[in-house]
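Problem: given the chain below (499 residues), write out its structure.
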Amino acid sequence: MPDSRLAGGDVDSRSSGWAIAGGIVFAAAFLNAFIFVLLYTNPIIVADDWYFLSVFLRPALEGDLEFSDFYVYRGAGDHIQPLQKVILLLQLHWFDLDYSPSAVLGVFGAGASSLILVPIIWRESEENVPDRIKFFAWALSTAALFSMNTTGSWRWPLASLNHLTSAISLVFIFFTWSELRKGRSNRIGWAVIVFTLVVGDAAVLASSAIFVVLIFCCLGSFRSSKAIRLALYFFLSLVASQVLMSSLAPVVGETAEFSTAPDQMAHLFRIFLSEGWWKWWALPLSNSVIATDRLEHLFGDKAALWQILIALSLLTLHLLFWRRFIREPTNGASFFAAALMLLFYGHVIGIILFRVSIFGTQYLEQPRYLLFYQFNLVALMVMLAAYFRPPASLKLRGAQSATFGFTLLCFFALQIEFSQASWATGIHLTAYYQKAARDIVDMEAYPGLTPKNCTTIIPLCDQSEERRIQTIGLLRRFGLNVFSARFRRIHASVIHLHE
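Solution.
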């Protein structure tokens, strides 16, 4: 008879081994993104930042800021983002409107998301799921969360902040599951309202996904008066928070491009008939693994074929995902995975309705959306860990382990390739930021002249002299961004300006 102490020691040794391996994976992924952001994220005011300067930061600088200003947006299709505005305000007061701290927060948000998955995968899955499967699911999810499949979510601070709001959404999914499992409903109402008022419309989307999963639970594994009461409170609080946020949110600025007029919907239907019927699902799925430009770089003319194969493979896994969720009793990991997968679907539908209808199908390939697409990979991995049952045959078990190991190594190899390609763009990103900074300074000095090849991510390039004087003058008057001595000192190696 084997010594139980030896058996226990062997288990502890294996657990320590997986913990060490996990620490190495996390440290490598985190540091890669963190150092890249420190060196190459964009600190310059660009794109939508100018809108927030005019409608949010201006009243803050002039002492007229009101609570409702944290909810300002441009109408249907735009985002209500109170948390981002709080961070923007902190960047204004502490960093002279340097935008790079947002990207740093985004890296920590991705790290938080990875760590949140640890208790979900290890504690909320079925008993007897092997540690090697849990590690596989967590490690691949972590690699996806920190992926440099595109640099868009790391070099643009506003996009990087989506990692932070995503982490908060993951925490809220887990919190809702905990309340459901314990049969408590007295806290869920206030939690939904606070979640919505802090995070904004991203919270509404996440809460809607959670509510759908709650309804399924009430009809299945958790058919009880307590579960029904929790779902009812959740729904009423979601409606109340949405009404409250909408009443707080003033519409300021251009709204035409976000219109959902009938002619726009007719245009969307025409896009669907021509190519949308397959690209609307294929592009988000394939881009979650490898972006189209990366695929073209690696496979050239065969990139389209690989894109379809990747999308079909993931589509098959999605069908198996829902088959398993419907058939098995719900546990914490499967609840989390289902809510996250519905959140992925919600993001794709929103992009199609409010962006593809205006800019066409290729807008699905915008780099900043790849973070949302990667939710489907994380959801698939968590569902795998939720119910995994190894085959009885030792040979099949060995072959299965080898397959998972090979898959993980291939995915890691892809991430290394993506990282090398991203780091190689650093010198070009620096030149781009230098040009953007110089264009802003030139338009402040000569507002009636448009700089040659004016940087496309600066909307003032296409605006009037009066608008330039008003907006850039605000930066000059308060010593912000490229007009801040501290900003220039911090970014001296990146931004070279001489007046």
